[in-house]
Every structure is written in structure tokens, then in C-alpha cells.
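Worked example 2:
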Amino acid sequence: MIDFVGKKRYFFILSVVIILCGIISLSVQGIPWGIDFTSGTVLTVEFANPVDRDLIENEFVKIGHDEVEIQEADNNAFVIRTKVLDETEETQVEEALKELEELTEDLGIHKVSDDIAREKARGAVMAVVVAALGILLYISFAFRKLPKPFRYGTCAIIALVHDVLIALAVFAILGSALDLEINLMFITGLLIVIGYSVNDTIVVFDRIRENLGKTSRVGFETIVNNSLVETLNRSLNTSLTTLLVLVAVYLFVGEAIESFMLVLIVGVISGTYSSIFIASQALVVWETGATKRLFKRNASA
């Protein structure tokens, strides 16, 4: 039988290393916020014939917009990000682009003001916090017949925070290479990941509860390890079939939901990992008093 509990230190170290790499990347490159949280205007333009990217940038410079980001898409299309434009400036931009080349369709404009950006940021944070509190209360209630049920809910929240940090770390590390940004689709993906991760964690915790009721002759660490082994096939099979669908959508649907699908892929992997190697192991550390023993050894030293 695989000794998962005996190797919990390595699982914790692996997660800490990934999260630290993400923190370092964020400190160097900054958080890749999307327009939903930073304010600005996003223009989607599609030309009838190929147009050089530099010519588009020059047109923006002529009308006084030096800070502009231009991303090439398919079929002579471009996604242009700039500061918030008023109606007069939008008209100037549209006329300047039409002078370069005929447009195949009307200029797509998505505008977010500073107030709306701040409101969306607050709403995103509140959504994650409310979800976490709801999960904590639900799991504590569901496991109320066990001693100290609050610990189960807290360990599930630890796994939840772990998954969020891993997703942020991956986006920070791959952000510049894949041109990723944190937008409302990213937050939506995170909330879905939170639900998926907690579902997997509850399955493991429920098996621990069943095994605790069957025997008291073995230690808590052995019961948890046996429960992990018993639920391992179920967790892996569910995650693999889910990943097959997500990867297929990510590869073939296109850029419109690329960041959304990527956070789901990362979240499914991280959620499965955290349910087995983080939430359950944290519960073992808490229930067996391993943290207290560690602090006592350090104090003695």
C-alpha cells in the first residue's frame, strides 16, 4: 500500500515551491490584470486585407494615443487595448482605421471605466470570500457528528486557497508567453474550480468518516492513508475524463475562452492534487498534533 501520509512533507514542499515561483514572477512582471479590473477600451477590428501592425500603431499615435497594445488575431483581425476613449475619440479611431483598409464589419468596442473596474474587482473578491465561507460552514455542518468538525471545513479551505494560489502562479509564470490576463472569465473559472476541488475533498473526507466509524484500533494517520488509497481511483478517473474534455475545448474552440479553459485545466489538476495531498495531509497534521510537536522541538533546540 502506498504511504501517502508518510510523504506529506514532500507534497507540502512541492506546493510551496510552485507558489513561491508564482510570487516571484508576479513581483517581477506584475499581475496581468485584464481590462475588467484596470479600466480602458478594447477595440476589435477586422480588415478586408492584411494590414501591418505598425501602421495601426502609427494611426493611434497621430491622434494622441501613445499607450496602445495591439494583439493580432486570425483573418486580418486585431484586438487593440488603449485608455478609456470618449465618443469623439472613438469616432476618430474608427475613421483612422478605415483609411488604412476597408473593414469587414463594424468596429467592436468594449469600454470599462475606473469606477466599473473597481466595482468588478470588489465583486470578484467578495464572490471568492463568500464561496469560501459557505464551504467552511457547510462542511463543518456535514461532519458535525465527528469530534472537532470545524477542522474538516478549515482544511478544505486550506486546499481551496492552495488551488487559487496555484492558478495565479501558473498564470503569472505563463502570462507573458501565452499573453494571458486575469479577467472576469478567470474569476468565473476560479469559482468553478473551487466547487470542483471541494467536491473531491468531501469525497475523501467522507471516506475518512466512514473508516473512523468502522475501527478505532489503528491510528488516525493509517485511517486517512487507507481512505486516500480507497478513493484514489475514483478521483483520478473523474479528473482524467474531465481533463480530456477541457483540453479538447482549449485546443479547438479558439482564443475567446482560452484563459477560462486554461484556469479550469490547471484547477482540475490542482484540485485533485490538493484533495489528496493537501487537505487530507493538513487534517492529519492538525489531528495528530504534529505542528505542536514541531514547535516544541524548535523551542527546545
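The chain has two domains: 5-34+115-300, 40-112. The chain has ten helices and four strands.
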